[in-house]
């Protein structure tokens, strides 16, 4: 799968990125893929290539660029090793909603300037932490997002003033949310609250719960579920296929 390695300058520094495109001649609709808590790594290079093969220019950023030259996480042990879990959660907590929005604006500007990419509105998708980021960006950078997809995203509904669901009335994108069973970070009650918020705001959306555990879509997660992962690819292709490139 064709891809390039590059950097994007943001207000807070320089983010390494990979841009994956289909074979052949573009341009193609652009999508930003936000990884889970484990960040920029081979599993997500492979996932970005898979999505690109469906006809998209897929930008995968190192969202932890503010951490400098950070050591990769082993997702098989990251949550069972106390020191690694603490480091991972520190990284996750280091990116504020404002930073997600600022970074996304830089990512979208980059895509808009690439000859491989068509249009000025984009898709965004993410997993776990990235699933939350997708909804944050849809609410805070609404004019740049045509479709947003969140998979086993946590923290979509919280008690905080910066909860993503509270930005529902700002969202202009079509939204897809694929939750997980028995997921304390996105419960049935959270799904109901998000459903009500999106409906009240007139946002076109679909919220589903997969018969799989949190982390089901990411191959190097211990909870990876091949059937649920295939379902998530189908759902993402459907929402992006219907709403990007118009």
Protein described:
The chain has 246 residues and is an alpha/beta fold. It contains six helices and eight strands; from the N terminus they run E-E-E-H-E-H-H-E-H-E-E-H-E-H. The chain has helices at 42-52, 82-93, 97-113, 129-140, 188-200, 226-243; strands spanning 3-10, 13-20, 28-34, 57-61, 117-127, 145-151, 174-180, 205-210. Strands 1-2-4-3-5-6-7-8 form an eight-stranded mixed beta sheet, sandwiched between helices. The chain starts with a strand and ends with a helix.
Explain briefly what this protein structure is.
With 246 residues, this protein is α/β, with parallel strands linked by helices. The protein has helices at residues 42-52, 82-93, 97-113, 129-140, 188-200, 226-243; strands at residues 3-10, 13-20, 28-34, 57-61, 117-127, 145-151, 174-180, 205-210.
């Amino acid at each position: 799968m064709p891809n390039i390695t590059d950097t994007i300058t943001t207000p807070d520094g320089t983010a390494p990125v990979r841009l994956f495109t289909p074979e052949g001649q573009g341009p193609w609709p652009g999508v930003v893929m936000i990884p889970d808590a484990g960040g920029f790594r081979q599993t997500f290079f492979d996932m970005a290539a898979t999505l690109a093969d469906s006809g998209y220019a897929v930008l995968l950023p190192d969202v932890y660029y503010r951490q400098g030259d950070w050591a990769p996480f082993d997702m098989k042990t990251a949550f069972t090793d106390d020191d690694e879990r603490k480091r991972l959660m520190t990284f996750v907590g280091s990116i504020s909603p404002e930073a997600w929005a600022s970074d996304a604006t830089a990512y979208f500007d980059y895509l808009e300037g690439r000859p491989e990419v068509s249009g000025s509105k984009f898709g965004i998708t993410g997993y776990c932490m990235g699933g939350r980021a997708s909804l944050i960006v849809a609410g805070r950078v609404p004019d740049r997002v045509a479709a947003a997809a969140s998979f086993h995203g946590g923290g979509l509904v919280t008690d905080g003033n910066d909860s993503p669901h509270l930005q529902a009335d700002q969202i202009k994108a079509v939204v897809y949310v694929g939750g997980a069973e028995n997921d304390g970070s996105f419960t049935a009650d959270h799904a109901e609250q998000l459903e009500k918020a999106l409906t009240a705001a007139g946002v076109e959306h679909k919220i589903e719960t997969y018969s799989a555990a949190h982390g089901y879509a990411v191959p190097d997660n211990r909870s990876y579920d091949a059937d649920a992962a295939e379902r998530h690819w189908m759902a993402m292709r459907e929402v992006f296929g219907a709403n990007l490139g118009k």
